[in-house]
Design goal:
single chain, six-stranded mixed sheet, five-stranded antiparallel sheet, 6 helices
Length: 186
């Protein structure tokens, strides 16, 4: 497990900023007990972990360390960063934009479908632009996943009911669909 390089850090923060906006700074701020959170890389996966725990993990050989902290995502072979569903609790707490879906839209989303306008209960932000990161939640504010907006808020309100409002990036159904490969190395 090692610290991220400058280029890896910029790529990670650029991706996280799509969903969190300016509250990204609070992710790495000091915790109430004086410890702080850091990002560490192991087997192309980025983990969000307390610094004191990351320092303890240096005594474990890299090939024997499977996971530590919360897996935020992984770097692809081309150098892009892909967020995993395991990052949802962290991102949802600091989200800039959210979309709330009706109960009839929960299961299609959890089965891997995009969010259609007919499934939208409300979009609290009037200033969402096209291709911005959003957290998809139930009406009870339970985060289900995240995605990228297909249209701006104004355009989405004019869509027909079958029009796509949000492209799905990850959803909680991945825990079941991809359980064999979600934490596999490589």
């Amino acid at each position: 497990m090692r610290a991220l390089t400058e280029e890896e850090t910029q790529t990670l923060f650029k991706k996280l900023a799509e969903y969190t906006g300016s509250s990204l700074k609070s992710l790495i701020a000091d915790a109430p007990d004086g410890d702080r959170y850091v990002f560490r890389l192991s087997h192309n996966r980025v983990y969000y972990v307390r610094l004191s725990l990351a320092n303890l993990a240096t005594s474990i050989p890299r090939d024997q360390l499977l996971s530590l902290g919360i897996c935020m995502g992984k770097f692809t072979k081309t150098g892009k960063f892909r967020l995993h569903i395991t990052a949802l609790p962290i991102i949802a707490d600091h989200a800039r934009n959210k979309i709330y879906i009706r109960p009839n839209g929960v299961m299609p989303f959890l089965y891997g479908s995009n969010v259609a306008k007919a499934h939208i209960a409300r979009m609290p932000s009037d200033d969402m632009v096209e291709h911005s990161g959003v957290i998809v939640c139930t009406q009870d504010d339970v985060p289900l996943g995240f995605g990228i907006t297909a249209r701006s808020t104004a355009e989405a309100r004019r869509l027909d009911p079958t029009g796509v409002v949000c492209f799905r990036q990850a959803d909680c159904g991945e825990y079941l669909r991809d359980e064999d490969t979600l934490f596999a190395s490589g």
